[in-house]
Every structure is written in structure tokens, then in C-alpha cells.
Write a structure and sequence with these properties.
Chain lengths: 200, 152
């Protein structure tokens, strides 16, 4: 019984420490956060927008935003979802500007719909797939609705909890859960339809 | 089959959310007798394992670049903050100088008759002994040395 309480207290202290450091614009704390989160941040952005160089740029912009708006982080929840939410908003802004630049047609008002627009760029999943199963999933992920894909990746790659994913996406937990189940069902079909020649 | 649907939802939930020990045991007991659900569980586990097997390699100097950018922005923001504070202090000092001068002028005007001064003398006195010194003090805030200077 004592162990969970200790862990919980440690987690609270950690987030409170981050909140204080961000308010004070503590550069050492920021460097530490960059060390811990940059890899995951770039990966998340890459899977959102599909282009490595833009993902790196947006990650840098995200950190600048963290520096500028650090006082808005209240330290009551984990830092990662807050960081991902900032990155996601920047990615949506970026995609919106990109679409505006190439077409003058009316753009969708729903921010999520920006992520739904098809991309002609090569798949970042294929480049990142290191196992046969991952290669098989890469094809499915590329054609999967980006809303399902994003929810799945936040859950199983970034290990965020359902309420944390809801915070990042700005959607209710029930919506997030439904996206994950639907996405999972679609990906499972990669093994069902494609035959199961490999053991589990 | 109805049992499949119910158990498959439970299997999904066991991967996505928290399930109780009892529910986990229920799944365990069920898949011993149900090949369909067993296969479903295996495929779900395999899908999730596959999702975790995307290995992304980051640029080696990526973190250093971000740290450099942040250090630069922190310094710029600190300088802007100092400048803002100096200009704010100047604005307050200037306001106090003007309001104070107006008050002193009114008081001095009241003293013109008993002290036999004329208005021009009072105006000159307020200007030389109150308004100009206080205005110069306010200006000094902007001309403070080094990084505290308001004028960049």
C-alpha cells in the first residue's frame, strides 16, 4: 500500500517541479525536458505530418512555445500530454497553412479534419518499421484514418492513458476509446486478411 | 456468436483500459475452451506489439540544436522583460512628476498672495525646482548603465 503512495507523491513532486521551472524559465530544466521528450515529440509530429524536416522544425517551435507559455502548465497532470497538445495544435496550424498555400478551395473548419487530408509524401511508418509485423502494419497505418492512427499511436507508442490522450486531442474520453477500438479492429485485419504465416 | 462479441470486447478492453483481476481470469478461462477468442486475443496482442516495433531514429544533434534555440530565446525574453520593466518605471515616474508638479503649482499659487509673489515667479519656481528635477530623475531610469538600460 505504501509503494503506490510513494510513487504518487514522487509524480506530484516531479510535475510541480516542472511547473515551477517553466514559470521561472529555468534553462537547465528545459534542457532536461528536451533530453527526455524530444525524441518522442519528433516521432509524434513525424507520424502526424509525414515529413521529417518539418517535424524537426515543428518540434523546435513547440519547445519555444513551451518556453513562452510555460506559466500555463499547472503541474497537476503529467507534462507529456501538455507538450503533445501544443505540438498537435502547431501541426494543425502548419497543415492548414500548407493547404492554403496550394489550394484556394474552402478548407475544413474542424481542426481534426486537417489531419484527414491525404498526403502524397512517402510513409514515415515504412521507414520506421523494423519487424515483419511492423512492415505489415505500416501499410495499414498509411491508409487508416489519421484520427484512429493518432489515438492508437498515443496509446501504444507514447503510452499515454485515455484521459491524457483526450487532453491532447481535445476530445472526450469516450471518443478517444472508440477511435482506439476502431483503429485496432482495422489494423488487426492486416493479419487476418493477409494470412498469419508467423507465430504469435 | 454472442459470447464471442462479449468476450472480444472484454479482450479489447484488457489491452486498452484497465480490467479487474476477475475479468482477466474470465478471459483466461474462456480462451482455454474458445479457439475463436483465443485467436482474437493473439491477433490483438500481435497488432499492439507491432505498433510498438516502429523504431524511430532521431538526429544526433537535434537535442543540442533545440537547447541552443531555447537558450537564445530565454536571453531575448529576459532582455525584453528588463526593457519592459524600465519603460514601465519611466512611465510611472513621469506620471508622478506631472501630477506632483500640478499639485505643487496649485499649492504655490495659494501662497502667491501672502508671500507677495507674482504668477510668473511661481511658474518659474515650480519648473526649476520641481518639474525639471523630477523629469530628469525619470529620464535617468532610461539611461541606466548596462543591461538595465531602457533605451536599447
Amino acid at each position: 500500500m505504501a509503494l503506490p503512495m510513494t510513487l504518487n507523491t514522487t509524480a506530484e513532486t516531479e510535475t510541480a517541479k516542472i511547473a515551477r521551472g517553466l514559470r521561472e524559465r529555468d534553462i537547465e530544466l528545459l534542457a532536461d525536458l528536451v533530453e527526455r521528450c524530444q525524441h518522442r515529440l519528433v516521432r509524434y509530429l513525424l507520424y502526424l505530418i509525414g515529413r521529417r524536416e518539418y517535424a524537426e522544425d515543428l518540434a523546435q517551435e513547440t519547445w519555444v512555445r513551451v518556453l513562452q507559455r510555460g506559466s500555463q502548465y499547472n503541474g497537476q497532470q503529467r507534462f507529456d500530454p501538455w507538450l503533445f497538445a501544443i505540438a498537435r495544435n502547431l501541426a494543425i496550424d502548419y497543415l492548414r497553412k500548407k493547404r492554403k498555400a496550394v489550394q484556394t478551395d474552402s478548407l475544413p473548419n474542424d481542426p481534426d479534419a486537417m489531419l484527414l487530408l491525404p498526403s502524397s509524401d512517402p510513409s514515415p511508418f515504412e521507414a520506421a518499421a523494423r519487424s515483419e509485423d511492423a512492415i505489415r502494419l505500416a501499410g495499414q497505418l498509411q491508409i487508416l484514418s489519421p484520427l484512429y492512427r493518432e489515438a492508437l499511436l498515443l496509446r501504444f507508442q507514447e503510452d499515454l492513458s485515455l484521459p491524457e490522450i483526450a487532453q491532447v486531442l481535445g476530445a472526450p474520453v469516450t471518443t478517444v476509446t472508440s477511435r482506439i477500438y476502431r483503429g485496432l479492429a482495422a489494423l488487426r485485419s492486416a493479419f487476418e486478411e493477409g494470412g498469419d504465416s508467423h507465430g504469435v | 456468436m454472442e459470447c464471442d462479441k462479449r468476450f472480444r470486447e472484454l479482450i479489447d478492453r484488457s489491452f486498452v483500459e484497465e480490467v479487474s483481476v476477475g475479468e482477466r481470469q474470465l478471459i483466461h478461462d474462456h480462451i482455454r475452451d474458445c479457439d475463436g477468442c483465443k485467436r482474437y486475443l493473439e491477433l490483438t496482442a500481435r497488432t499492439i506489439r507491432g505498433l510498438r516495433e516502429f523504431t524511430f531514429t532521431s538526429e544526433p544533434d537535434s537535442n543540442a540544436q533545440v537547447r541552443e534555440i531555447l537558450a537564445h530565446h530565454t536571453e531575448t525574453m529576459r532582455q525584453h522583460n528588463v526593457q519592459f520593466k524600465v519603460w514601465a518605471a519611466f512611465a510611472v515616474a513621469l506620471s508622478m512628476s506631472i501630477v506632483g508638479s500640478a499639485v505643487v503649482y496649485q499649492v504655490a499659487k495659494l501662497l502667491t498672495v501672502p508671500m507677495h509673489f507674482d504668477t510668473a515667479q511661481v511658474q518659474a519656481g515650480v519648473l526649476v525646482f520641481w518639474l525639471l528635477p523630477s523629469f530628469c530623475s525619470a529620464l535617468r531610469l532610461l539611461a541606466a548603465p548596462g543591461e538595465n538600460r531602457g533605451i536599447a
